[in-house]
Amino acid sequence: MMIQYSEGSASHDAVGGLLGLKKLVKDFYAFMCSNPDYAIIRDMHPQDLTVSEDKLVCFLSGWLGGERLFAKKYGAISIPQVHAHLVIHEKERDMWLSCLNEALEKQPYADHFKAYLLNQLRVPAERIRIACERRL
Fold first, then answer.
1. From CA 40, how far away is CA 34, in angstroms rounded?
2. 38 lies in which domain range?
3. I need a surface site. Which of 1, 33, 117, 118 has the fewest CB within 10 A?
């Protein structure tokens, strides 16, 4: 029987909880920093990625069915509003997703979960792109 990742904390559990999320996010930013192909999106972040990493871990925790850490630590979130100061088109969205895919490939997750998670994260990435294009 296939796991229903959309139910309860199944996705959060599949990433390995908070420790697994921290590893995924650390790898995500490591790929972003080490590959010159991602320079455009790297430059959208502060030099010190400590807060960016923490915010992404906190967001993903609640988004994947775990504890809603972002709201507790940073307050309410609107994904498009948080990124409103950036210019994000298809190219930048796709870079972000590609970087995420590289980080996912490094994780010990089941292949079907990697595909599921990448597909699910396309949703907020696309919402950010659409909101950006509406502003321009």
1. 12
2. 12-135
3. 1
